[in-house]
Amino acid sequence: MKSLRIAIEPDPETVAPESNLAVAAPAIDRQLILGGFVHDSVESTISYVDGDPDAVAEILRESTGVETYEITRSTGGCYLYQQQGLTESALDLFEAFFRESIVVLTPYELRADGSIRMTVVGDGAKVQAVIEEFPDEVTVEIVRVGDSVGGPASELSARQREAVSVAWDCGYYEVPRETGIERVAAELDCAISTASDLIRRAESRLVANALDVRR
């Protein structure tokens, strides 16, 4: 089984404002799709929108594609339920992903730069085939390839996870820092240079995953 973290960049001319709220308004930073389904060319989703709920409401009120919506305000943003009719290009995008051979993990992220970030999981050959068969008008970048589906922490080695866990328990990550690398090395029963290397490699992996960048 393979997992691919990918960045999709649809043709911006074909994306309706309600399909990526983060692009439609400067007051919205990103939109996380928590779940949903498509039936008879209508998409129903529940999402968390990181940004101004009033800006969300204004976009949806003016949209001709949204059939119904409900906004629940939250700290820093809102939860949004919406139903919208999909364009032909949007349906092609769904057909490329939502098939028996792969699983799309939620949440997936709609960013202000117009990209969609998601993780797909399945048989390695079938996942690769899906990427290769994508519509020509959609750009797909493979950000990260893995053999696990448990999130960024599962990509650390057992020793790296142990080092980070020990460092956390010792107060190494407190602000201000309560202890130094010497204490971490003593708890791990290894040389200071070894403890430092384990932590640096683990941090590099976790930060790269958080930023969705290649490493």
Care to count the β-strands? 8
Terminal CA distance reads 21 Å
Biggest sheet, spatial arrangement of strands: 4-5-3-2-6-7-1-8
Summarize the main sheet. Answer: 8 strands, antiparallel
The unreliable regions are none
Helix run count: 7
Order of helices and strands: EHEEHEEHEEHEHHH
What's the Cα radius of gyration? 21 Å
Protein described:
The model has no long low-confidence stretch (mean pLDDT 86). The protein has helices at residues 21-24, 53-62, 88-97, 124-132, 158-170, 181-188, 192-211; strands at 2-9, 28-39, 42-51, 66-74, 77-85, 102-111, 116-122, 139-146. The chain has 215 residues and is α+β, with helices and mostly antiparallel strands. An eight-stranded antiparallel beta sheet has the order 4-5-3-2-6-7-1-8. The protein is globular and about 65 Å long. A hairpin with a 2-residue loop joins strand 4 (66-74) and strand 5 (77-85). The protein folds into two domains: 12-114, no CATH class; 152-211, Arc Repressor Mutant, subunit A, CATH 1.10.10.
Question: What's the topology here?
Answer:
Blueprint: E1 2-9, H1 21-24, E2 28-39, E3 42-51, H2 53-62, E4 66-74, E5 77-85, H3 88-97, E6 102-111, E7 116-122, H4 124-132, E8 139-146, H5 158-170, H6 181-188, H7 192-211
Antiparallel strand pairs: 1-7, 1-8, 2-3, 2-6, 3-5, 4-5, 6-7
Helix pairs in contact: 5-6, 5-7, 6-7
How would you concisely characterize the structure shown here?
With 215 residues, this protein is of the alpha+beta class. It has helices spanning 21-24, 53-62, 88-97, 124-132, 158-170, 181-188, 192-211; strands at 2-9, 28-39, 42-51, 66-74, 77-85, 102-111, 116-122, 139-146.
